Amino acid sequence: MSAALAVAVALAGCGAAAVTATPARTATPAPTATGVKVLWMGDSIAGAQAPAVAAALTAAGVAVKDATSAGGGNVVAGGHEVTTMGAADTWKRLQKEIASFRPTVIAYQITAYDWGTTRQQLAAYRKLARTAGDAKARLVLISPPPFKIDDFFRPHEKAIRSAPAMAAKAGNATFLDTADLWGDDPAADRAQRAKDGIHSCQQGSAAFAAWFAKRLGELTGFTPAAPAAWATGRWTGDERFGKLGCG
Fold it and tell me: Superkingdom of the source (predicted)?
């Protein structure tokens, strides 16, 4: 099954109309700009979703900047060397992105590296809410998809499990629970994980993008583009999917 066809099947499975790729006969008019500008943040899990998120939102007239980071992207420093370094980089980059991109929405998907106590997690998410407020941007916090807790993540499983609940308590932010889309079992077909059990391939990323665009549109007042306008685009060939062994 081709990547484009797999995306179409996945979208049909999550309630969107199936997409059939046909040769374009006329140029597609550019979408009307909505004035919404989304800074998409997170780790490599969010990074695998980024191509589809950008395609779906751009098709709706929303500007998007991918600020995800592989092996980091976290805002919770905790007390671990890995997360302390990752958080420092994330906060530094966030200030630069706010100054240059001037987002109206900061969308942060909770990372697999938001290790720390519940107090540290809550403090970090509240700091993110204050930072967004100072930038006059709406903060949207998104729970991560269910993913395989392997030997690397197992020592930090408690923190990984508690992070979404702390994000939901941050205040001055909108919390979106992706369990509505993915469920809570990373091994289930519904979770649409790649071979590694952690990231998503094209079809899973497209399913998320359609789900996210609908909810963000409800929050900010834009109308999401139909999947036919973006689901079989060039983004399906992004190198990130190749590295994950996606078809």
Answer: Bacteria
